[in-house]
Write a structure and sequence with these properties.
Number of strands: 14
Oligomer: single chain
Number of helices: 12
Distance between the termini: 47 Å
Helix content: 25-40%
Largest sheet: 9 strands, mixed
CATH superfamily of the largest domain: P-loop containing nucleotide triphosphate hydrolases
Structural class: alpha/beta
Order of helices and strands: HHEEEHEHEHEHHEHEEEEHHEHHEE
Radius of gyration: 24 Å
Shape: globular
CATH topology of the largest domain: Rossmann fold
Strand order of the largest sheet: 5-4-6-7-3-8-9-10-11
Number of domains: 2
């Protein structure tokens, strides 16, 4: 059946569209492809692998005093330096940190962290007819031409970027989202907004629910009684959720003030690897992991396990309850993403293995 449909598709493409077809219809026709000819995209378009992807829109939020800005500064420095973030691979690029709340606290936090990225310290509004979106776009475009492309733009905080708009109004949130989309489309950067929880922390971030719908990723912060702050990936549009980063805020002395009293700030201090990840993957992840372990045990001392072999073994072991092959492959893909995010497996090219300690 597939061969017949492929032949039908080739036959259709041999004939040009009719002369009276409208220009927009011609454009849409040019964007139409037969899915039977698709091949998988094996390139991972990550900014932080298993957490954030390039060019997307995300949000870090939580109650007051859960280290949102400290974590965002740490993320920004990791991207600027291209260093791993909580053990996860990072794609290097320039960072523009928009500190919209002002004050010396942000400067001290950057100094404490040894941060070295571009910081914009001015009021910026991303809503309304006088939004600063266009002039803001020109900043990373100009600096990028001199110093390299920008991979991350931080908006801290979302409330300040709203200007006089109402974060509880659907129309105003839609306006904010349009401007953030314009910003990331024009720069190619991932845009992350820093935001607060509502009065009822269990109901998520403050404001209209349309905001969460538009996000590609969402990281939620919460502090436990021992002072450990957990940052959980609560939403991931194309990947597995549940990955958890854990850290404490470690106090750093920067100097003394005019009275001789110490001036301090804080930096992010990751907890150990066991605390930074969920202890166990989900059911599908466990099935896929057991299938991989069996393949590794059966392979020779110099033989590697290919992704195709792992996928087929995991599907045969029931990684997905689906009966159709495309759904089975999709189920395996989600399990694989979860295991990578948890740091349990490593993929190199077309080969896979258990992650090295």
């Amino acid at each position: 059946m597939s061969a017949i449909l492929d032949a039908f598709d080739r036959a259709v493409r041999q004939f040009p569209p009719p002369p009276d077809m409208k220009a927009r219809a011609r454009a849409l026709l040019g964007c139409s492809d037969w899915s039977g000819s698709f091949t998988p995209h094996l390139t991972n378009n990550y900014l932080v692998k298993g957490v954030l992807n390039c060019g997307e829109l995300s949000m870090i939020y939580g109650p007051s005093n859960t280290g949102k800005t400290f974590l965002a500064i740490d993320l920004a420095q990791a991207v600027e330096a291209g260093r791993p973030w909580f053990g996860r691979r990072v794609r290097q690029g320039r960072v523009l940190y928009c500190s919209l709340e002002g004050g010396g606290g942000f400067v001290n936090r950057c100094v404490a962290a040894g941060a070295s990225f571009w910081a914009l310290r001015a009021g910026v509004t991303l809503t309304g007819p006088r939004a600063d979106t266009a002039p803001l776009i020109e900043v990373p475009q100009h600096l990028g031409g001199l110093h390299g492309r920008f991979a991350l733009i931080v908006v801290d905080t979302l409330a300040r970027a709203m200007g006089h708009a109402d974060e509880n109004a659907a129309a105003d949130i839609a306006d904010l989202i349009r401007n953030c989309d314009t910003l990331r489309a024009a720069t190619g950067a991932h845009v992350v907004a820093i935001h607060h929880s509502g009065k009822d922390v269990g109901r998520g971030a403050r404001g209209h629910s349309a905001l969460r719908t538009a996000l590609d990723a969402e990281i939620v912060l919460a502090c436990d009684d021992d002072g450990v702050i957990g940052a959980t990936l609560a939403k991931a549009r194309d990947g597995a959720t549940g990955a958890r980063l854990a850290f404490r805020l470690r106090q750093v002395e920067l100097g003394v003030d005019e009275d001789g009293d110490p001036v301090t700030s804080c930096v992010v201090a990751p907890e150990n690897a066991a605390a930074s990840h969920p202890q166990e993957p989900g059911k599908a992840g466990r099935v896929a992991l057991e299938a991989l372990d069996a393949l590794i045990a059966a392979s020779g001392p110099s033989d590697g396990v290919t992704l195709d072999a792992w996928r087929d073994a995991a599907i045969a072991a029931g990684v997905s309850g689906a009966s159709e092959r495309p759904a089975q492959r999709a189920g395996f893909h989600k399990a694989r993403q979860q295991l990578e995010a948890l740091g349990l497996v490593e993929v190199e090219g077309q080969f896979v293995g258990r992650a090295r300690p």
